[in-house]
Design goal:
The complex is a heterodimer of chains A (89) and B (269). Chain A has 89 residues and is α+β, with helices and mostly antiparallel strands. Helices cover 49% and strands 16% of the residues of chain A. Chain A has a domain of 55 residues: Cell Cycle, Chain A, CATH 3.30.1070.10. Chain A has four helices and two strands; from the N terminus they run αααββα. A two-stranded antiparallel sheet of chain A has the order 1-2. The radius of gyration of chain A is 23 Å and the shape is extended. With 269 residues, chain B is α/β, with parallel strands linked by helices. Chain B has one domain: P-loop containing nucleotide triphosphate hydrolases (Rossmann fold, 3-Layer(aba) Sandwich). Chain B contains 13 helices and eight strands. Chain B has an eight-stranded mixed sheet with strand order 3-4-2-5-1-6-7-8, with helices on both faces. In chain B, helix 1 crosses helix 12. Chain B starts with a strand and ends with a helix. Classes of the chains: A alpha+beta (89), B alpha/beta (269). The interface between A and B is medium-sized, with 21 and 22 residues. Bound molecules: adenosine-5'-triphosphate (ATP) and magnesium ion. Chain B: This is Septum site-determining protein MinD.
Chain lengths: 89, 269
């Protein structure tokens, strides 16, 4: 090991490794989004509009999860209603 | 029949136009009839990099709209007989590119040329998708930087789903990684993603690594594709890239910091 390397190794690791870790997470996330049908955002929006005709919910009340498995696709809809409404329905 | 090569990236300013000019010139110099098309409608600058801006009369959009024929619009390079430039329009917007129009022009060119190099605009919208739609090969230009690598990956998704080859279930586009603006000194210090890091994430065939080099600006200042600068590291790296594209096995250069004088070697052990 050279003299310079000695000083070098005592420094914190460079930002490149941080960049790589961030990229791995980003790219993995992007790739799961990729196979999703393009109608999903619109579907989510329209379902939200229908629900809003009856109850007041915020933007995040409807979540759409899409997963691809070997032979079939799974579409999971999750609708969260506010507590106060529950008694009325 | 010509092979259609798109130079694409997603992210802007990473070196697509520099690469398009270098690759087209390199192919032409090796005896292949080559045309390079500027798809960056509205922001044309391939003609500047090629040094033919004062000879532009008609452009790509004129040909698409049948206001001029191909022979009127194509500019023959003064340094290389096999090379032609089809410039972009400066006054239109990218919507002037239609799938049918672009297809018609490429079809006509395919009969007279060996290679058609398409210089894509930045982004993943209409202009960029038009540039890649008909491609046989894609060179994904990437800088060793988070946003550029991420955009390259998104572009790969588009290449494999929205191209003519994907839509007609043909053999997919051949995809290559070209890493540009690479700075081995910073990589060595852990300040920049390395070739291996980027390849691990994108898992593409590496077609070249172009070092960060002052010669690129010098070349663009004078309108000479940098591949013609045989003395420069970037010129040599582009030349190697062209050879690899044509199937030669050429080892990668400029991946390590150049060895300096005695003192530095002494301290490095
Ligand atoms: N290897 C390199 N070394 C140093 N500078 C470079 C290198 N490659 C490109 N550049 C510089 O980066 C800038 C952008 O290059 P270029 O125009 O080729 O990118 P681009 O991807 O075509 O941009 P745009 O997305 O705007 O079309 C230019 O100023 C160019 O000189
Ligand atoms: Mg450009």
């Amino acid at each position: 090991m050279g003299l310079l390397d000695y000083f070098r190794s005592s420094r914190p690791k460079g930002s490149a490794s941080v960049a790589k870790e961030r990229l791995q997470i980003l790219v993995a996330h992007d790739r799961t989004q990729r196979g999703r049908p393009s109608y999903l955002p619109k579907l989510q929006q329209e379902i939200l509009e229908v629900i809003r005709k009856y109850v007041e919910v915020d933007m995040n009340a409807v979540s759409v999860k899409y997963e691809q498995e070997d032979s079939h696709e799974v579409l999971e809809l999750n609708i969260v209603l506010p507590d106060t409404v529950q008694g009325r329905i | 029949m010509a092979r259609i090569i798109v130079i694409t990236s997603g992210k802007g300013g990473v070196g697509k136009t520099t690469t398009s000019a270098a690759l087209a010139m390199g192919l032409a110099q090796r005896g292949h009839r080559t045309v390079v098309i500027d798809f960056d409608v509205g922001l044309r600058n391939l003609d500047l990099i090629m040094g033919c801006e004062r000879r532009v009369v008609y452009d790509f959009v004129n040909v698409i709209n049948q206001e001029a024929n191909l022979n009127q619009a194509l500019i023959r390079d003064k340094r290389c007989d096999n090379l032609y430039v089809l410039p972009a329009s400066q006054t239109r917007d990218k919507d002037a590119l239609t799938k049918e129009g672009v297809g018609r022009v490429l079809e006509e060119l395919a009969h007279g040329y060996d290679f058609i190099v398409c210089d894509s605009p930045a982004g993943i919208e209409h202009g960029a998708t038009m540039a890649m739609y008909y491609a046989d090969d894609a060179i994904v230009v990437t800088n060793p930087e988070v946003s550029s690598v991420r955009d390259s990956d998104r572009m790969l998704g588009i290449l494999s789903s929205k191209s003519r080859r994907a839509e007609s279930n043909e053999e997919p586009i051949r995809e290559f990684l070209l890493l540009t603006r690479y700075d081995p000194a910073r990589v060595e210090k852990g300040e920049m993603l390395s070739v291996d890091d980027v390849q691990e994430i994108l898992s593409l065939t590496l077609i070249g690594v172009i070092p960060e080099s002052k010669s690129v600006l010098t070349a663009s200042n004078s309108g000479v594709p940098v591949v013609l600068d045989r003395e420069s590291d970037a010129g040599k790296a582009y030349s190697d890239t062209v050879a690899r594209y044509l199937g030669d096995e050429v080892p990668h250069r400029f991946l390590q910091v150049e060895k300096k004088g005695f003192l530095k070697r002494f301290f490095r052990g």
